[in-house]
């Protein structure tokens, strides 16, 4: 059963300097256990840093970067370049076979323009999962930069949470982990992480202004995946040592973050297959 299991892990740009070495070792253990591991990454903070140096404006609408031609070139350089290759190197050092690609490579992520006012921001139309299956058959973990391409070969910037959600949904993944720099979705007090949340709660918390900014694309991707058969979706504290095993564990108290579950599952135990997956990774 574990051979068929699939986990998609999204790494936020907020984490790139703080990801613990244990994360890469956990990926190696999962890969060794026959789990299909796919990594999707962002890099918003680093794009902002370079934009500042180049005097390019960093402008966002509803959390999405307004992306003109110059900004797109920068986004492609940063996401597809140094960030992607650093992650590949760290995985290789931990004993994984990893290959860095972007959603442009082999037309992995086909998009259309989301809204002309946002410029080159892509809305995902299709994920070519055969590319990911081929890489898996070679024993390689794909590390995917959140870019996409349309039918005319035009490249687009995609929010990395949205890209990861689309990949998880298309792969019918068992688990999507959105790793970031906070201990999950924080309640109204801004201090305490919520253990479990349903898509209905998500809509309410966005309306109430509790979930804001970069957390919005995460919870939207999470809700979309939960509604489309991804069994476990977690917003996890990627700074915590061993967070991946904690995410996969059946015991909520060992998990640093928030699990997004279908309506009516707020109190249920976690899915047994996911527990088995965690067990195989030990
Ligand atoms: N309710 C909330 N709980 C936790 N974080 C939130 C919440 N609302 C907004 N945020 C913000 O979302 C950020 C995570 O999104 P983002 O900065 O895009 O991270 P990443 O680079 O990991 O994708 C947090 O650092 C926090 O500032
Ligand atoms: C369209 C859009 O906003 N794209 C994002 C892509 C990177 C990203 O999402 O990075 P994080 O995961 O670190 O937030 C951007 O340009 O910042």
Mean pLDDT: 90
CATH class: Alpha Beta
Number of strands: 14
* Secondary-structure element pattern, one letter each: EHEHEEHEEEHEEEHEEHHEHEH
Beta percentage is 15-25%
What gross morphology would you assign? globular
CATH topology: Carbamate kinase
Class based on secondary structure composition and strand pairing: alpha/beta
Helix count, DSSP H or I runs of 4 or more residues:
9
Which strand order does the major sheet show?
5-8-2-1-11-13-14-12
Biggest sheet descriptor: 8 strands, mixed
Contiguous low-pLDDT stretches (5 residues minimum) are 268-282
The hetero molecules present are: adenosine-5'-diphosphate, N-acetyl-L-glutamyl 5-phosphate
Determine the N-to-C terminus distance.
16 Å
- Give the CATH H-level superfamily: Acetylglutamate kinase-like
Instruction: Kindly provide the radius of gyration, computed on alpha-carbon positions and rounded to a whole number of angstroms.
Output: 18 Å
Determine the fraction of residues in helical runs and give it as a percent range: 25-40%
Named at the architecture level, the CATH assignment is: 3-Layer(aba) Sandwich
| Tally of structural domains | 1
Pfam families: AA_kinase
InterPro entries: AceGlu_kinase-like_sf, AcgluKinase_fam, ArgB, Asp/Glu/Uridylate_kinase, Glu/AcGlu_kinase
Family: Belongs to the acetylglutamate kinase family. ArgB subfamily.
GO molecular function: acetylglutamate kinase activity; ATP binding
């Amino acid at each position: 059963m574990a051979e068929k299991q699939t986990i998609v892990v999204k790494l936020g740009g907020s984490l790139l300097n703080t990801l613990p070495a244990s994360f890469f070792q956990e990926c190696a253990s999962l890969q060794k256990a026959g789990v299909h591991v796919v990594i999707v990454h962002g890099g918003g903070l680093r794009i902002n840093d370079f934009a500042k140096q180049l005097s390019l404006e960093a402008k966002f609408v509803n959390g999405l970067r307004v992306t003109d031609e110059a900004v797109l070139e920068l986004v492609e350089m940063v996401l597809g370049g140094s960030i992607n290759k650093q992650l590949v190197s760290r995985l290789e050092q931990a004993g994984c076979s990893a290959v860095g690609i972007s959603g442009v490579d082999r037309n992995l992520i086909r998009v259309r323009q989301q809204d002309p006012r946002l410029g080159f921001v892509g809305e995902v139309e299709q994920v070519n999962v055969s590319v990911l299956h081929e890489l898996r058959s070679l024993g390689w973990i794909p590390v995917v930069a959140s870019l996409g391409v349309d039918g005319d070969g035009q490249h687009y910037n995609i929010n990395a949470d949205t890209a990861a959600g689309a990949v998880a949904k298309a792969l019918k993944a068992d688990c999507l982990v959105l790793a970031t720099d906070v201990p999950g979705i924080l309640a109204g007090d801004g201090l305490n992480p919520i253990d479990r949340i349903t898509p209905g709660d998500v809509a309410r918390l966005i309306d109430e202004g509790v979930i804001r900014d970069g957390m919005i694309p995460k919870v939207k991707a999470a809700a979309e995946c939960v509604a489309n058969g991804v069994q476990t979706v977690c917003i996890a504290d990627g700074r915590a040592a061993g967070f991946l095993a904690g995410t996969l564990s059946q015991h909520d108290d060992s998990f640093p973050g928030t699990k997004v579950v279908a309506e009516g599952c707020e109190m249920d135990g976690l899915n047994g297959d996911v527990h088995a997956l965690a067990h195989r990774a030990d």
